[in-house]
Amino acid sequence: MSDENTLPVESIDQDPIEAPEPEKPRKFDSAITEGPLSKAVWKIAWPAVLTNIFSGLQGWVDQILVGNLVGYQANAAIGIAFQIFLFVIVFVSSVFIGMSVLVARFAGANEPEKVNRTVYQGFLTATFMALGILAPIGYFAAPYLLSLVSHDADVIAEALPFLRIMFTCSIGMMMYFMLSGSLRSAGDARTPMVLGITMNVLNLILSIVLIRGLGPIPSFGTVGAAMGTCIASGLVGAYSLYKLYNGSWVVSFPKSSYKPDWRIIRQLFKFGLPAGFQGIAMNAGGLVMAGFMGSLAQGKATQAVYAVCYSQLFLLVTWSSNALMGASAAVAGQNMGAGKPDRAVTAVRTSASFGLAGAIVVGLFFFFIPEQLLAIFGMTEPEVVKIGVELLRVLSVSGLFISMALAFTGGLQGTGDTKSPLYISIVSQVLIPVGICLIVQNIVGLQPIHIWLAILAGHFTRFLLSFIRFNQQRWRDIKVEIHSTAA
């Protein structure tokens, strides 16, 4: 029986001795498809971890500043506004997941022409969706969307201008997401790290100035956080466009045929749309849960705690877990492109073990010093502290499951199975937590601790289903292909 990874040797004119065809020079890093897998995974993951730390610190600064200067209603405002923004932008940026699947496969197969064409078509599609769909619809729909998750007039007043700015000025952020995903999938994790750190340092400086005010620059409060984010991402996005046209990175725009290629765009949506719907399902679950929080007697305090503990402090877990999810996807995808599915399996399991180790360390801080962590964000009111301590201690356990779940999600997406994470997210992020809250609400009355335990149940379910689905290994038969040249 012949090995499926062995190429047949053909003769020409029955000549028994034929010189082997020269091996095509490899443009992409071979360490991902050869050598130690733990090193390959970490090579992709650590720059993303560092980038996520800077990104998370920026969110911390925003929440700390508005919490101390405006009040915890501003914490709640940023929390719910950003939740809504993510709900919409995740679908628009789903094309990047499809792009990353194709880029990883073609990079693993050492086909740079296909990589570059894929990146360019992803850019065209995402730009149209961001400017033609997200900006106009998001601006006018923002008041209605906010009314779905909060009934507090003070919170809505703070959140509305923040949300409108994020919707209308998101193109720079979209450019960064597109570039980061394509570079990591091609094996270059350091360039997006440099860009991400630069963007977040700029964001940090701008936010401090615009939220607080400095000299002749007035204090913009909550709105200043959105302004800083959009200005910083816009500058980095413009620079990235120049570099992509310049052609000095491992991925670039093609030198000809700048028109849309509908064959590639269909492939982007084929693999990307399930991931987009997955993101919508997850954020829909988050919005419904935020609605449950807002319906409580202590709704404002509960939403503020959620915005700080889950959307900021829990990033100490998701910083590394999301980076490892991206590493799982890139390494698994490239090894599938290179015809090495067994390495893909080992890479994903290695990512999960890294994520679990990090979650254990962070969980110890959440469990033993929650009051001190809350105080950093100006949360010292007894009612707020009580709710926050409950959430952080639940998250100390929840982080163990979500860190491993994300690694297996990355493995599924990187190998081309983007549908399974969609179904898993609907069950684990919507049906399970929302169902628990509805049942408890109608039987005994809902309290914050019930919502936190429902979130834990969802994270455990997501881990279990993702683990089972990945290890079934049905993704081995998924094919990824586009024509060699554009029409």
Question: Would you give an account of this structure?
Answer:
- The chain has 487 residues and is an all-alpha fold.
- The two termini are 39 Å apart.
- The chain is 77% helix and 0% strand.
- The chain has helices spanning 37-69, 72-92, 94-108, 112-149, 153-168, 171-185, 190-212, 222-246, 262-294, 299-313, 315-337, 341-368, 370-376, 382-414, 419-443, 448-472.
Please state the overall shape, judged from the principal axes of the Cα atoms: globular
Please identify the oligomeric state: single chain
Strand content: under 5%
DSSP helical segment count: 16
Q: Please state the structural category.
A: mainly alpha
Order of helices and strands: HHHHHHHHHHHHHHHH
Helix content: over 70%
Please describe the biggest sheet, giving its number of strands, its sense, and whether it closes into a barrel: none
- Average pLDDT, to the nearest integer? 84
Strand segment tally: 0
Kindly provide the radius of gyration, computed on alpha-carbon positions and rounded to a whole number of angstroms.
Answer: 23 Å
The stretches of 5 or more residues where confidence is low (pLDDT under 50) are 1-22
Spatial gap, N to C terminus: 39 Å
